[in-house]
Specification:
9 helices, about 280 residues, two-stranded parallel sheet
Length: about 280
Amino acid sequence: MDPQPAQYRHPDAAVSGHGDANERPPAPGPPPAAPGAGSWVVLPTYNEADNLLGISEAILDALPGAMLLVVDDSSPDGTGRLADELAAADPRVRVHHRPAKQGLGRAYLDGFRIAIGAGASIVVQMDADWSHDPADLPRIVAPIVAGEADLVIGSRYTGGGGVEDWGIGRRIISRGGSLFARVVLWLSPNDLTGGFKAWRASTLASIPFEGVHAGGYVFQIEMTFRADRRGARIREIPITFRDRRVGQSKMSRRIVVEALVVVVQLRIEEIRDLLLRGRRS
C-alpha cells in the first residue's frame, strides 16, 4: 500500500490531539475587559483632603476599568488640588471643580451629567469618607452588568446589611426616615436614605434633573422615587455602613426636616398630577 501523504490527517486527530503539527492555533480573542469597564464613579468632596488619596486608590483597585470623577466644591483644605494631582498621574481620574459649596445633591447631578455625556454605561455614586466600602463596588455594579437591575442600592436595612459606630439617635433618624418615605411614597426598597448606588446610565438619563430637590438627605429618596415611577428595576445589595473615619458628619437637623417636608410634597404633587390627568381623560 502506498504511504500516506504528508498532509494526511487521521479522522480522529481532533479527538486524539495528534493533528498536523504545522497547523496554526486559532487566533486569540480580545482580552477581557477590566472590571468596571464603562462605569463612572462620581465622588463629591468638600474638605476631604485626609481621605481622598486613600479612597481614590481603593475605588480604582476595586474597579480598575472604571473612571473616577471627583466633584469638588472648592474645598478650602486643598482637596481640589489633590484631585488635580491624582488626575495628572492617572488617566482614569477626572476632576470637576465647582465655584462654591452648593450641596451634595447638586454635586451629584453635575457629576451625573458629565458621566452620561462622556458615554458611561453605569454611574456609581458614593461618599468619600469611607462610610461606603470600595470593596463592595463589584457587588454593587454586578446586577446591572448582568442585566438584572437598573438601580442598585447599597442597603443597610436589607438582610445582611448593617450600621457600625452610630448612636441610637442617628439610627432612629435614618431608619425612621426610610420607613416614613416608604409609607408616604409607596416604595418597596428598605433603605431610601443611603447614598451608595449604581445606576444604569440610560435609567439615570431618563430622569429630568430640573426640579429635583437636591438637598443632601432628601436627594437620595427623591431619585429612587423618580426611578421607581419610571419603571426601573430596583435591587438592594446588603452593605455595612461605617461612620466616617476622618472629619465631621455633614448631617444636620435642617437636612432631616427638609427631607420630611419634601417627601410629603412629592406625594402631594403626584396625587395632584393624577387628578389632573383624570379630569382630562
